[in-house]
Amino acid sequence: MIPRTAYLLYPEWQGYGVANDVHRGAVAMARTLFPTVDFTTVDSPLDETLTVRDGVLGLDSIAARFRATLAALRERAPDQIVTIGGTCGVEAAPIAYLNERFDGDLAVVWFDAHGDLNSPETSPSGHFHGMVLRTLAGEGPRDYVDAIRRPLQPRQIVLAGTRDLDSRESTYIREHGIAVVDPDALRDPDAVTTAIRARGFTNVYLHLDLDCFRPDEIPDTLMRTPHGPAFDEVVAAFASLRGNFHVAGWSLVECVERGGRSIERLKEIVQGPA
After folding, report:
1. CB 198 within 8 A of CB 210
2. How far apart are CA 141 and CA 259, in angstroms?
3. Angle at which helices 59-76 and 92-101 cross, to 10°
4. Distance CA 261, CA 247 (A)
5. How far apart are CA 209 and CA 68, in angstroms?
6. Which one of 11, 80, 153, 246 is CB 3.0 to 4.6 Å from 86, fit for a cystine?
7. Cβ within 8 Å of residue 74, ≥6 positions away
8. Residue 260 binned pLDDT confidence (cut-offs 50, 70, 90)
9. Residue 137, domain extent
10. How many CA atoms lie within 13 A of 246 on its CB side?
């Protein structure tokens, strides 16, 4: 059966809240990589004054947008979601929906230099894009958690290419047995596939923050982080995952457009999952 795919352009920058460059980056990715696709666009104003509530910068703005997007996905009921987003925070709605849709049979592969496993209590910045995965696991702002019907279980999470963790994120990972495939391990294209197969999942969601890559290969990202995996290694990992599991959704996030060189190269990623 051909999946009903929702294409979501979610250029929210407010989950970072300091600058809106990722808004333009998301729009540029959508236009360049999917020139013929009619995206459903989540309205995210370029200019907005943000305040802190419950330890989260811009919570009133981002939580309202999350709830509206999640409600729209539940109504439309797609089988697959492709998300082109601003910050990592946009992942809350598509992943929360898909975890409901597949009744917990969903491995979330977090290709990202960072764990995004802080909470409002542990975050050093108050930026939601560093809390989204912890929120999806049921520990985050009530405005989000109360709307998530099926939180992720730690065994559903696989961090890939991760190398920049806060100390309390490391503690959380260790205490909850979250799988981590570090950049060196990604030299084996089947490393992530093996980790997921061991947990028995049949569906995967592939989150790709551009800072997963080495910044000399993909420089146009919000949080440049050295010592990442090579671009071709991530492409190979994607290919392995696509060949072994049903891709329920995937994303590209945190692009800061600096001339488009990175976006053009991302076509190698897009040609697979889409």
Report:
1. no
2. 36
3. 30
4. 27
5. 23
6. 11
7. 97, 100
8. low
9. 5-270
10. 16
Q: What is the mean pLDDT of the chain?
A: 95
User: Strand 56-57 relative to strand 52-53: parallel, antiparallel, unpaired?
Assistant: antiparallel
Are residues 81 and 98 in contact, defined by beta-carbon separation less than 8 angstroms?
yes
| Ramachandran sector of residue 152 (left: φ over 0; alpha: ψ -120 to 50; beta: rest) | beta
* C-alpha separations of 160 from 17, 114, 179 in Å: 25, 9, 9
Q: Report the amino acid identity of residue 235.
A: V
CATH of the domain at 73: 3.40.800.10
Q: Is the dihedral of CA 32, 33, 39, 41 positive or negative?
A: negative
SS3 11: coil
* pLDDT tens digits, 184-209: 999 999 999 999 999 999 999 999 99
Alpha carbon separation from 51 to 47, 57, 62 (Å, rounded)? 13, 6, 11
Assigned token pair, 60: 């009133």
User: In this structure, are residues 79 and 5 in contact, taking their beta carbons and an 8 Å threshold?
Assistant: yes
For residue 242, which amino acid is it? R
Kindly state the tokens that stand for 211: 């800072």
Closest to 156 measured CA to CA, from 111, 105, 92: 105
53 forms beta bridges with: 56
φ, ψ for residue 205, nearest 5 deg: -120, 130
DSSP structural state of residue 42: P
